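In response to reviewer comment 3 from the previous cycle, which asked for concrete evidence that the modeling workflow produces usable outputs, we include below a single protein chain processed end to end. The sequence was submitted unchanged, and the resulting structure tokens are shown without manual editing.
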Amino acid sequence: MRLASVTFLRVKQQARRGGGHMFDNLLSAPHIILLLVVALLVFGPRRLPELGGAVGKTIKEFQKSMNEARAQVQAGTVIDDGKNAMAGVSAGSSTEAGKPN
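The workflow returned the following structure tokens.
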């Protein structure tokens, strides 16, 4: 814990001096190795490949959704499919709040 706080303070001081962004060295090689060792200890060698595959699929699906949304916004064809939860909540709460049950 001490090493992490010392590293964080050093990076923060470097950022103040104009030596780069505060999070530039956040995931250096030792940090990634430490994260992999902790993941191996927590999940075990049998489950780790499954989790890696699931994370990869999730990232791929997220990127696909972001690209589709970006293309729709650029084309100006954003379609409201009625799934806007906030609009339904705000409209429902304003009309239903004053009515007794």
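DSSP finds three helices and no strands in the chain. We consider this sufficient to address the reviewer's concern, and the full set will be provided in the supplementary archive.
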